[in-house]
Amino acid sequence: MRFELGDLRAWSPANPVDVIVSNATLQWVPGHPDLLARLVGALAPGGVLAVQVPANFDQPSHTIRAELAAQAPFAAYLGGVAVPSSHDAGTYLTRLHLLGCAVDAWETTYLHVLAGADAVFDWVVGTGARPTLQALPEGPIRTEFARRLWAGLRAAYAVGPAGVVLSFRRVFFIARSPE
Ligand SMILES: C[S@@+](CC[C@H](N)C(=O)[O-])C[C@H]1O[C@@H](n2cnc3c(N)ncnc32)[C@H](O)[C@@H]1O
Predict the structure, then answer these.
(1) Gap between the Cα atoms of 177 and 179, Å rounded
(2) Distance CA 57, CA 122 (A)
(3) Using CB atoms within 10 A of its CB, is residue 121 exposed (0-12), middle (13-18) or buried (19+)?
(4) What confidence tens digit (pLDDT) does each residue in 92-139 have?
(5) pLDDT digit string (tens) for 26-43?
(6) DSSP characters over 16-74
(7) Protein residues with CB under 6 Å of any ligand 1 atom
(8) What sign for the dihedral angle of Cα 29, 53, 4, 83?
(9) Residue 105, SS3 per DSSP
């Protein structure tokens, strides 16, 4: 097997491929439904594009970050910072249908049972909130942002009898290109 590091916005294989799998990545590309035509175009006839994207951006794990990012003094540093986003399963299904594909699209809400009162904070600082924290200057401003995010997440995700339950909706689609 051979691996190449690249930017999927510009990726184009030398020859048509049978399968493209993308897990939890397209959400980082703004306007990524526009990328689907290129990805389908890279498939051999009858080839398959299989994608999963998170779809939980309306949850406190993301909205608390967004609320803080809009406030002073943080907002001054965060214009244009990368934030993940995705669309309903139907949006992807329609786009891919119009590209001539046979499509299965669905969504599932996972209940992640996490251990420890700070589990959601630890999760988001390594994922959705990472570019935000990196865009803030090291020192008191970044520390204060992290502290408020930590406090907000602690309040939003209490430790229950089973631990911290993180409700996490995900959208999936599988598109087969025309033969
Ligand atoms: C949540 S991780 C998922 C990683 C892996 N696919 C998995 O399932 O464990 C998101 C990944 O998207 C990658 N990513 C974000 N924007 C990208 C782009 N424009 N081109 C290629 N990869 C990108 C990041 O580097 C990161 O590895």
Answers:
(1) 6
(2) 17
(3) buried
(4) 999 999 999 999 999 999 999 999 999 999 999 999 999 999 999 999
(5) 999 999 999 999 999 999
(6) -EEEEEEES-GGGSTTGGGGHHHHHHTEEEEEEEEEEEE--TTSHHHHHHHHHHTSTTT
(7) 7-9, 23-25, 28-29, 127
(8) positive
(9) strand
Beta strands 102-114; 164-176: pairing state: antiparallel
Among protein residues, the one with the nearest Cα to ligand 1's atom 16 is 28
Question: Which residue's CA is minimally distant from atom 27 of ligand 1?
Answer: 25
CB of 150 within 8 A of CB of 133? no
Task: Could you please state the CATH topology (level 3) that the domain comprising 17-176 is classified under.
Answer: Rossmann fold (3.40.50)
Burial track 86-102 (b if 16+ CB lie within 10 A, e otherwise): bbebeebbebbeebebe
If one residue of 4, 28, 39 were mutated to test the ligand 1 pocket, choosing by the most ligand atoms within 8 A of its CB, it would be: 28
Numbers of helices and strands, H then E, in the chain: 6, 4
Q: At which residue do the structure tokens 């498939």 appear? A: 43
